[in-house]
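S.,

As promised, the nicotinamide-adenine-dinucleotide run. Input:
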Amino acid sequence: MSIKFKNALVTGGAGFIGSHLVDALLDEGCAVTVLDNLSTGHLYNLKHIKDSITFYKGDIQNPKTLMKAVRYCDVVFHQAAMVSVPQTVEHPVDSARINDIGTLMVLDAARKNNVRRVILASSCAVYGTDPNLPKTENMQPRPFSPYAVQKLTGEFYARLYYDLYKLETVCLRYFNVYGPRQDPSSPYSGVISIFMNKAVSQKQPLIYGDGNQYRDFVFVKDAVRANLLAATSEGAGGGIFNVGTGSSVRVRQLWKEICRMSGTDIAPRYESPRPGDIRESLADISLAKSALGFEPEYKFEKGLEMTYNWYKESVKSEVPD
Ligand code: NAD
Ligand code: UD1
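Predicted complex:
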């Protein structure tokens, strides 16, 4: 890795992707601070490393806590957000406070504290209704939900802070990230976590639409590696990169695969498509490959199996909050 850093802040570090990122940063020998309001994240995601990090329970919109958390950091990984597309459809204003103003506040705190680089968790949702596939970073975004508009706004601010204030920012457009620790407990949770939970507890899943919609599912450890590469690659500042795999799985096929893995044979229930949902999603990752050296290492079958084993174990141990 060509750019070195010692102190990192992970906003949303008690969440699914953030907590894996914290693990990886500690493995790299970094001092890690986490700022999280525990709205969807959990302390048990950090239990195994709680004595090795500095944890602030607080909101990214609280300037005092934010400034305390950012101080002395070289790199900020901004993961905190209202993550669910349908939840932002229901709460367009509240979600904008977190996803837009919150992101702006993180960028500004970084600027004021001379942070070297900020990595923003953006989303492939910004491509929205553009029917062309696979998605390349130079396509015209056509956001189709408040969430997508908010992530796109975050990208614009990131670029502005790069141009205007010379703060190095890198935006990662994650496709659908999955893996251990993704919280399945809400109807807003990611589809793989919900389906895993259904399979383990032998319950019927719900499919919105005909189930032929598809997603490019990327394993969480690959998304984490993309973050480390984005933080350390020379010349990545000001850039936007897709983080996916370049292959896709239909939702209906996903349930079949999980059934096969778990020995389940339950037919799903079908309901109307969710408002704001995009239909198809597939990443072109050639830019991330050439500029960051990013290559996904986990094949879907392997990642899905690791994820299934984790859900099976976590049901046994009934992790407390
Ligand atoms: P998550 O819900 O597990 O993590 C989000 C974390 O942010 C949680 O720990 C939550 O408590 C915290 N948080 C939320 N609002 C906060 C606030 N106002 N102040 C402080 N902390 C706050 O979700 P995740 O899947 O780990 O998502 C991480 C990031 O990646 C998000 O920005 C999300 O939009 C983005 N993303 C996720 C996916 C995916 O498939 N999971 C895909 C694209 C983009
Ligand atoms: C997810 C992420 C979002 C990210 C986006 C990138 C979560 C909660 N959301 O949104 O942050 O920016 O990927 O693409 O992680 N579905 C069902 N049954 C269910 C749940 C979902 O059929 O029980 C369907 C949905 O209607 C959708 C697909 O599965 O068509 C994927 O849904 P979901 O996992 O919520 O992902 P996205 O909406 O793509």
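The chain has a mean pLDDT of 95. The CA atoms of residues 26 and 59 lie 23 Å apart.

- D.
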